[in-house]
Design brief:
There is one protein chain. With 429 residues, the chain is of the alpha+beta class. It folds into 3 domains: 1-196, no CATH class; 200-294, 2-Layer Sandwich (Beta-Lactamase), CATH 3.30.450; 298-428, Signal transduction histidine kinase, dimerisation/phosphotransfer (DHp) domain (Helix Hairpins). The protein is built from 9 helices and 11 strands. It has helices at 3-74, 81-91, 190-195, 230-237, 242-252, 290-293, 298-371, 375-406, 418-428; strands at 98-102, 110-113, 125-127, 153-154, 161-172, 179-189, 208-213, 218-220, 257-262, 268-275, 282-289. The strands form 2 sheets. Strands 3-2-1-6-5-4 form a 6-stranded antiparallel β-sheet. Strands 8-7-11-10-9 form a 5-stranded antiparallel β-sheet, with helices on both faces. Helix 1 (3-74) packs antiparallel against helix 7 (298-371) and helix 7 (298-371) packs antiparallel against helix 8. The longest helix has 74 residues, at 298-371. The radius of gyration is 54 Å and the shape is rod-shaped.
Length: 429
């Protein structure tokens, strides 16, 4: 086989090995990426459970405040607004928590707070006239109370992004002496909720948690999601027709899942989404750049490079061994050719040197046959002639071997006497 063919076969084998290595590496990388996405989804479930527990616990604390105030009214000793706020001021365990008592019948949505104004330490009034937080008051249950998650809003007393937990209470109107309804609010900074999710640090340093409603408006806003509405953000930076947009909104608001999208920088990111169990109309979004979940393939490519160099080194080694082996084969072939030529020369010379005296013997024997009249001598001479011709034929056959090796052997048709051939064989025996 030619050296070029051997090298081509070796290169083909190397290419096949590298192909399978790359396919295997890609398969493992894709499997690792899928596992990373699944782990990210599990993290989203954990975040949803934490957020849900936080919201339910805080709402429950607000309900405890409301129940205590309402029980006083039911017992015939209703609290005034000032007394209710004083109770809440004592009941709350953290100075960062605000208690607001708002009168929904007041067109300016004025009320009383547990904390003074930042500008006037003697002013405990609060106003929600410029904050559309309550929407329809009928959406707040008078029996159990619900969390009004319209959006994260700015606390009018300290300017901090906050969340309000609400319930209805009955307080005594000192002017009329009658009970009137008020909305009790437990107000906490959004950062309190974000602090609940610090366990993501380390494993998911770049993760951002957002909470949106069914319309895409934010309660908690991840800093990378620039727009005030998540669905509008998606539409702004991702190409999607009406069908694709509708499918996206349906997917986000249906169940646990993961989707890819582009952020405002055109980078691919991953959004894991899940509905909040406690609030069917709110959804948790976990945002992370896609590269944070992608498997680092540097080691795989390094391994591939090392394997490639190893295979090429093996190819070079095999080529050197093949060259050395070919040199030895060439030397052996040269020696065999020389020996064969010597043999052919010896056979040719020997057959010529033997045939000359053999012809002389046959010629002298012909003279004996021609001149002798004794039957016994003639019989011996006939035998000598037969044996001599046979020996001469053998010598000619030896020469024929030399002709065959030289490619000069010709085959000719010739007539022969079968009876004479049998007679020669008998005489020879």
């Amino acid at each position: 086989m030619k050296k070029s063919k051997i090298i081509a076969i070796n290169l083909l084998i190397i290419a096949l090995i590298l192909f399978f290595i790359i396919q295997y590496a890609n398969t493992k990388m894709n499997e690792s990426n899928r596992n990373a996405v699944e782990a990210f989804e599990k993290m989203t479930i954990s975040a949803e459970q934490i957020v849900t527990n936080y919201l339910l616990d805080e709402q429950h604390l607000c309900d405890i405040w409301a129940n205590f105030i309402n029980r006083s009214a039911d017992a015939g000793t209703p609290m005034t607004a000032e007394e209710a706020i004083s109770y809440i001021r004592k009941a709350k365990i953290s100075p960062s928590i605000y208690g607001h008592l708002i009168f929904p019948e007041d067109p300016n949505k004025n009320g009383i707070s547990t904390n003074p104004s930042l500008t006037d330490q003697d002013d405990y009034s609060v106003s929600y006239s410029k904050i559309n937080l309550f929407g329809d008051p009928d959406n707040i249950s008078k029996e159990d109370g619900v969390l009004n998650l319209t959006r994260a809003y700015t606390n009018p007393q300290n300017g901090v992004q906050s969340i309000a937990f609400m319930n209805y209470v009955k307080v005594l109107d000192e002017t009329t002496g009658e009970l009137k309804e008020a909305i009790l609010m437990r107000v906490e900074a959004v950062s309190t909720l974000e602090d609940k999710l610090v366990f993501f640090n380390g494993e998911y340093d770049r993760v951002e948690i957002s909470l949106i409603n069914k319309d895409g408006d934010y309660l908690v806003h991840g800093k990378s999601l620039k727009n005030s509405n998540f669905f509008e953000y998606y539409k702004s930076y991702n190409r999607a027709d009406s069908t694709g947009y509708n499918n996206m909104t349906k997917e986000i608001t249906s169940e646990l899942g993961t989707m890819k999208m582009l952020n405002s920088k055109g980078e691919e990111c991953i959004i894991s989404h899940i509905p909040l169990k406690s609030l069917k109309t709110w959804y948790l979004l976990a945002y992370i750049p896609a590269r944070e979940l992608s498997t680092n393939t540097v080691v795989d490519w390094l391994l591939l490079g090392m394997v490639t160099l190893g295979l090429l080194g093996l190819l070079v080694f095999n080529y050197i061994i093949l060259m050395a082996y070919n040199i030895k084969l060439s030397e052996a072939a040269e020696a065999a050719n020389q020996a064969n030529e010597a043999k052919s020369h010896f056979l040719s010379t020997m057959s010529h040197d033997i045939r000359t005296p053999m012809n002389a013997i046959l010629g002298l024997n012909e003279m004996v046959l021609r001149d002798s009249h004794e039957e016994e001598i003639v019989a011996y001479s006939e035998s000598i002639r037969t044996a001599g011709k046979t020996l001469l034929g053998i010598i000619n056959d030896i020469l024929d071997f030399s002709k065959i090796e030289a490619g000069k052997m010709d085959i000719h048709n010739a007539d022969y006497n079968f009876v004479l051939m049998l007679n020669d064989l008998v005489n020879m025996v």
